[in-house]
Amino acid sequence: MIEPQDIQTYKFENGLTLVVESMPAVRSAAFSLLVPAGSIYDQQGRNGTAAILCELVTRGAGERDSQELSDALDDLGVQRSESVGRNHIAFSGASVATNLTEALRLYADIVQRPHLPDEEFPAAKAGVEQTLRSLEDEPRQKVIIELRRRCFRHPWGRPPDGTLEDLPRIDAATVREHYHHYFRPNGAILGVAGNVDASAVRAIVEEVFGQWSAKPEPSIEPGPRGPAVDCIQQDSTQTHIGIAYPAVPYSDPDYYAAWAAVSVLSGGMSSRLFTEVREKRGLCYAVYATLSSLPHEARVLCYAGTTAERAQATLDVTIHELVRLGDGIAEDELNRCKARAKSSLVMQQESTMARAGAVARDWFFLGRVRTLAEVRDRVEALTVDAVLDYVHRYPARDFTILTIGPKPLEPPAAVRGDSD
Questions:
Q1: Which CATH number is 243's domain given?
Q2: Are residues 124 and 239 in the same domain?
């Protein structure tokens, strides 16, 4: 049973949007603050600037140095995280509801009055470098990161964590410049969910964020994508395969049909890719597909990990299964997708952190919040015919293929035809 939701939105004079969902049945409260300063704003040749800033910005703010700030958040019991994405640097936290006000005061210092100290810069940069070097040992992750660079236009395909090649060109001055240009309230979104009163949250947000000054909206010049078929050669007995093809974005009316199509392909051990590529033929040890959306475009991203000897067959069969989806979908396949969605909705309803992130994300993509009841109804309304209609209008084609392994693979004939 999904309870009715009380969701309030406010737009402040400086451009900050506050979205509050009151959840009286819980004792906690959570927030998700999206600041429009992500990796798409990194300077050319300095990809990784936003990632370093994300590491540096919490190392002292307001009247507190790095240790004092950390202690203050720990004293409030805030379970927190910071992350860099393509569009935003995100700050998330959850605690008992009575501590939300003080937590927001601390984060108001972090985003408006960070110290960005010189002495902390080497450690922040080293943290990003360590993350990037760890990816070199994780080709399963690296192939998807590199696939995005080839299937999305620049700078949306740019890796949020940056690149090892660009990292030496980033200094403390570059990071401070990024902060001063892009940390701004206009375009920022603060999602709050939990046992809170919306009017009280609005009052404290106006008090602590109301003087945050707006800045000019930056413009972005789209650039080209990478090659449609590519190989990163690596001396290995394994081959990692990434496949992408166009889909509809989160804001599109067909989004739920797109989600269902991908869920049939890759929604558990009974899904098409797992059954046909791994279980029946034993071609790979891992295979999945996921729907990845930007505000203006989306891709289905697929991964398969296999041995070098079976790599060509794995690529051929995976592409075949993606294309074959249009031949038909069984009722029980769609029903399993719906059951997984309902379980996810129930868990969201019980998690203030999940709801704070969801309302902020919805506002960014849609300019409104989809309630859990609305999502449930949209999922329930899906039919096999509706999903197949979507698949026929947006078939698996125009593929981008990237492999990491000892030798390039030959794209199937259908793929070669797409690129003509």
A1: 3.30.830.10
A2: no
Which of 26, 194, 33 has the alpha carbon at shortest distance from 105?
A: 33
Taking the CB of residue 134, how many other CB atoms lie within 10 A of it? 12
Both 111 and 62 in one domain: the answer is yes
Q: Does the pLDDT of residue 419 top 50, yes or no?
A: no
- In the block, which residue shows the tokens 């609005």? 202
DSSP 119: G
- Looking at the fold, whether 256 and 348 belong to one and the same domain comes out as yes
pLDDT of residue 348: 80
Which residues, other chains included, contact 126 with Cβ-Cβ below 8 Å and sequence gap of 6+? Answer: none
Say whether both 233 and 153 belong to one domain. Answer: no
Using the Cα atoms of residue 76, residue 53, residue 129 and residue 90 in order, give the sign of their dihedral: positive
**Helix H segments across 164-248?**
172-182, 198-209
Is the pTM higher than 0.85? The answer reads yes
Q: Which residues pair with 18 in a beta bridge?
A: 10, 190
The tokens of 262 are what? 């991908």
pLDDT of residue 201: 98
Choose among 356, 358, 363: nearest CA to 104.
356
CA angle 50, 159, 287 (to 5 degrees): 145
**Mean pLDDT confidence for 272-292:** 95
| Residue 238 bridge partners (DSSP) | 307
In three-state secondary structure terms, 235 is coil
Please return the burial class of 275, using the count of CB atoms within 10 Å of its CB with bins 0-12, 13-18 and 19+.
middle
Instruction: Report the C-alpha gap between 356 and 91 in whole angstroms.
Output: 11
Q: Is residue 369 part of a domain?
A: yes
| Residue 220 lies inside a defined structural domain of this protein | no
* Residue 244 C-alpha from the chain's centroid: 16
**What is the radius of gyration, based on Cα positions, of the chain?**
23
Query: How far is Cα 61 from Cα 92, in angstroms, rounded to an integer?
Result: 17
Can you give the residue range of the structural domain that contains 269? 229-418
DSSP codes joined into one string, 318-342:
HHHHHHHGGG---HHHHHHHHHHHH
Same domain, 266 and 387: yes
The total domain count for the chain is: 2
In this structure, are residues 415 and 350 in contact, taking their beta carbons and an 8 Å threshold? Answer: no
Identify whether residues 244 and 175 lie together within a single domain. no
pLDDT in tens, 61-109: 999 999 999 999 999 999 999 999 999 999 999 999 999 999 999 999 9
